[in-house]
Amino acid sequence: MPSKNLHVRQAAVSALRAWAKGHDYAETLVDRHAHRRQLSSADRGLLQAILFGVLRNRRLLDHWIGKLRDGKLDPETRDVLRVGLCQILLLGIPDHAAVNETVEAGKSAVRGLINAVLRRATTQRQRLLDEVKDLPPAVACSHPDWLFNRWKASFGKKEAIALMQWNNRPADVFFRVNPLAETPQDLPGTPLTGAPGFHHLAGSVPGALIQSGAIYIQDPATRHSVELLAPQPGERVLDACAAPGGKAFLIAAALGGAEGLVCTDSNEKRLPRLQENLERLHAGCAEVSVHDWTKPAPADWHGAFDAILLDVPCSNTGVVRRRVDVRWRLQAPDIGKITQTQRKILENALPCLKPGGRLVYSTCSIEEEENRGVVQGFLTDHPEMELREIREALPFRDETDGAFAALLTRR
Hints:
Elements: H1 4-20, H2 26-36, H3 41-56, H4 58-68, H5 75-91, H6 95-105, H7 111-123, H8 125-130, H9 137-140, H10 145-155, H11 157-167, E1 173-177, E2 190-191, E3 198-201, H12 207-212, E4 215-217, H13 223-229, E5 237-239, H14 246-255, E6 261-265, H15 271-280, E7 287-290, E8 305-311, H16 326-329, H17 332-349, E9 353-363, H18 372-381, E10 385-393, H19 395-398, E11 403-410
Parallel strand pairs: 5-6, 5-8, 6-7, 8-9
Antiparallel strand pairs: 1-3, 1-4, 2-3, 9-11, 10-11
């Protein structure tokens, strides 16, 4: 009977093969393959560490493979070597486990090759690690050249490298205390300066507090858009791209409950979870509808809202630390296509805003083209709209997720 840890290495290789074929995102693959192999909680954690470690460091791992092995490799064997080298050179897993059990995860015909490469890595470990500082930054930090060059042009070389290094560290866990629920006497974590209600969590996630709705796992960067929107009790507010409900919860908290809140999403399957989250957080029921905002809004929504939040689909370049495979999925031409979608959403939501109403356009992108660029183009075409305030969060500066929010008002 194979050991459970062998199952972990096999699961990691299988998940990487599925990811390479575009079957799903990394977070979903962890859940699926852990369930399929009935992994314990500890082994699921190891699977996630390996899978995320490989995806975060994929380009560096391939550089090391090239140093340790001459000749071509089939894709599955390369993934097995990535899994092994990640454990040996990055995760600090004992050599005997990292080598022996990873070798067994490969096909019998290539196990000798895998064994030789991984054992060579254990003997050359220090040299391989010492040489990283001399590699080109995009290789050392495992990002595509185009993305590094884009960030270097936007922020400067030093900040671009700091951003890539930030993206490669495991994401911190933050939570917000729920003002709609009774506050526990002994809250875990450390309160954040400048972000009232938010705490940084260093230990294990308190499942009982989450289940009771006393707290909600949320990065402090999410607050900027809702603070700019400033929902007031009695107002009718639209959260147009709402699922899974993090910002909808912040709006409901400001309103004193979900009454008056309308939440929409283009994916009907995501809405039940949104409603469940709001109810668990003691917000009550929002009005929930399916709508694709690249299409015109229903006529009965025209002029119906005091405030609208447009947390639009984006490149996710501000949350690469959490969405570890974004850097490999995103291609340079995608950003221009995304901005067209973002502009359509703005145009279709605008008729729903009352005269004198407030609209916040927000993304979790750090790209000028998606943020100020979209807003300025929109304002040029709509002189009835006025820009009141912009907030930006940059990971290398603010030590949170990246975010952008612009408050617009209708004259």
